[in-house]
Amino acid sequence: MAKKQNKLKVMFLGGVGEIGKNMTLFEYGNHILVVDAGMSFPSDQMPGIDFVIPDYNYLIQNESKVAGIVVTHGHEDHIGALPFVLRDLDVPVYGSKLALAMVGHKLEEARIKNKKLNTVNEGDVINVGCFQVEFIRVNHSTTGCYALCITTPRGVIFFTGDFKIDHTPIDNKPIDLTRIAEIGKSGVMLLMMDSTNAERSGFSMSERCVYKNLDNLFAQNLDKRIIVATFASNIHRVQQIINCAVKYNRKIAFSGRSMINIAEMAYTIGELKYPREAIVDIDKIGKIPYDKLCIISTGTQGEPMSALTRMSQNDFRKVVINEKDTVILSASAIPGNEKLIYNVINNLYRMGADVIYQSISEIHVSGHACREELKLMFSLIKPSFFIPIHGEYRHLKQNISLAKEMGIPEANCIIPELGYSVDVDKKGIVRSDNVPSGNILVDGSVVTDDSEMLLRDRRHLAGDGFVITIISKNSLEINPPILIARGVRIPDKLSDDLRESMIKELTKDKVDDDIQGIKQMLRKLIAKSLLKELKKKPMIIPIIIEN
Length: 547
Hints:
By secondary structure, the chain is an alpha/beta fold. Helix 4 (97-109) packs across helix 8 (257-268) and helix 14 (492-506) packs antiparallel against helix 15 (515-534). It has three domains: 8-202 and 366-451, 4-Layer Sandwich (Metallo-beta-lactamase, Chain A); 208-356, Rossmann fold, CATH 3.40.50; 465-545, Ubiquitin-like (UB roll) (Roll). It has helices spanning 57-61, 76-79, 82-88, 97-109, 177-186, 208-220, 235-247, 257-268, 307-312, 338-350, 371-381, 393-405, 451-464, 492-506, 515-534; strands at residues 8-14, 23-28, 31-35, 51-54, 66-70, 93-95, 117-119, 125-128, 131-137, 146-152, 155-159, 190-194, 225-229, 251-255, 293-297, 325-329, 354-356, 385-389, 421-425, 428-431, 439-443, 446-448, 466-472, 482-486, 539-545. The strands form five sheets. The chain has an eight-stranded mixed sheet with strand order 7-6-5-3-2-1-19-20, with helices on one face. The model has no long low-confidence stretch (mean pLDDT 89).
């Protein structure tokens, strides 16, 4: 009897059908390779949630198989979940110097010690279980970004990670197209490619294009304090802002915890360069003339607790915005964050500042490949099969259309969704049984995967409020029921009627001493009355005090 062959499975726990939360698994026999473990911003349907990470219970259930985690680069949507994953799994992690410096800082903050962080350089080849992984330099909006050539027992997979083709990058290290072409000539079974800009025609602009526009803005605002908001992990952008500030003889202050931490880490490992004497602590900017200061801040997405948002609300004592400020938002909106961002912009205008943002000035370029760059990757890799990754469903669909244009049969392509498991070898690619997937919600330091119940309760409270009734069961005449309402207004007459109804029900002879039964009766009584009179369904919490 022929020996049963193991299947190569590709599984998707995040980053498909959505922006962010990237996490992909490769499984063969008793080995699992994890690529990236990121987070995403909560939607407006997730009240009170700080961020979202993938449901990684499949990894916990198969802990003995997990051979290691490879991170393509150090953006939050690729490493943000690692403090949680590594709390549960003791496995090695591989990535660039900057990416692992950021991971190490996160682990230190989470008080997770003795984790196996292994720095890799471009061109390195490592073994992770039965998988061989080669790291190929690509361009993106930060340093230390890699595509992965994954050699498996069933064939070669080329995984682009987030990438663009920039011939004039800030660090003078263009994408390694020569090595990518060599890999393509050797034969690639499966291409998995970034889809974020699959709707955009042409080529993405070089990061160097931003410098000219930033330089012009600095030159036009010589008499103003300049505040530039960008992603802390966009090291190339931060470097260009620093270069402009130094050119115009301005001191530089970093604002926002992540900006301060990442700037220091990047400087320490040589990925960010600036004269130390140009840096001033944000707490000491009061001594610097307005026209001699540049503040580099977090808050491009209108995050409620970010430095720029707090400035826009006059809730940041270190920086008070006024007509002497020019604020530059050097980033694009992540889908879903537009309302938050425009609230910040409007508030900054109200406070007297001039505000420069992408709609009115080219002060941001994307770190993701547009259609012509994606076509070039197809032509170099020449894969037998294709799976688009990193994007909403529309982005993935557009990337499939490109694949067909480039000669890949539609039957050889799969659009993945969360939980998909795909079996692939040189003979074909097919859907398999789904794996557990979904969202884990992070609220402060509290983690819950019981997301539906948590969000249902929060939406209920946000929409209808809550009512607490406090009753001293054995002394109703002396202590009548107390009603406390939050998020719903109960008119005085209705409050009086409810108290009378509760006293009437509680003094009936048939009422026994079953506390839970009494609470249930009170909930029904109050709920029925409020629905009838107010058309509201608040959460009702009875408290019974026994004297």
